[in-house]
Target: histidine kinase
Amino acid sequence: HDTTYRVTCRAAGDTGCVIVCFDDVTALEQASQMRRDFVANVSHELRTPLTALMGFIETLQGPARDDTTAQTRFLGIMQSEAARMNRLVGDLLSLSRVESDQRVRPTTQISLLDVLSSTVHALQPVAQKAKVTLVFDPPDHIPTMIADADQLRQVFTNLIENAIKYGGEDNTVQVTLAAADRDPALRAAGVRVDVTDHGPGIDPAHLPRLTERFYRIDNHRSREMGGTGLGLAIVKHIIHRHRGRMRVTSELGQGATFSVILPLVP
Ligand code: ADP
Model:
């Protein structure tokens, strides 16, 4: 059931018998199905803004040729559609880069405290614009660790941006950093970062699929918020490269906490 076999027959030497082989190629078949789905998704995601752009160009060349009010409005929409395509291509490049980095262990000594402080600082204007309070209480001392600072910055940017986007207005997003020496997810000493929002939360049924490429709980809302559907897939690969774990705890109406647990030495 749900298993794919490749069946091959060949002669067994001069014995006059035949060898029939049943190879279980389920994993291979699933991988190629995933690749096909991915290409179909990317094409769809790119085609949607492209179709809109082509439609507006046609209107600007025809019916709206002399209507300056319509021109200003349409150019604004075209700009945001082009920006969406640009974000999608940027995220696709990031995803492909982190996927091909998987086998290369990070080697640089970094301060996670510095990475997190600068990330929170850079996102304060985004939070203000969304009427969200972004809080980070830095701990007194956190040991340095071996990691890729740019990639971890991307992890926390994606998680904090999601908390701001999906948490809704008048929300508070809390970021905490602590030592996680005895976390069951790790064999050695590590650190743990929690990003918590008090928004509508996530139905537990969605949790196992959140890090799949292009998986969104509410397609329309995600697109409206400028999401590409690739943010958590990128996060998953970066954490995996650092031999860490991500845990999501949430209930509908109770907000969500995304926890990243990283070893000090991957
Ligand atoms: P997107 O670009 O759509 O935000 P992500 O991969 O970052 O894609 O997230 C996948 C989906 O997970 C989102 O579309 C959203 O439905 C859900 N999600 C992520 N973070 C949160 C959060 N803090 N609260 C509620 N839903 C979230």
About this structure: The pocket of adenosine-5'-diphosphate is lined by residues 158, 162-163, 166, 197, 199, 202, 210, 215-218, 222, 227-233, 256 (CB under 6 Å).
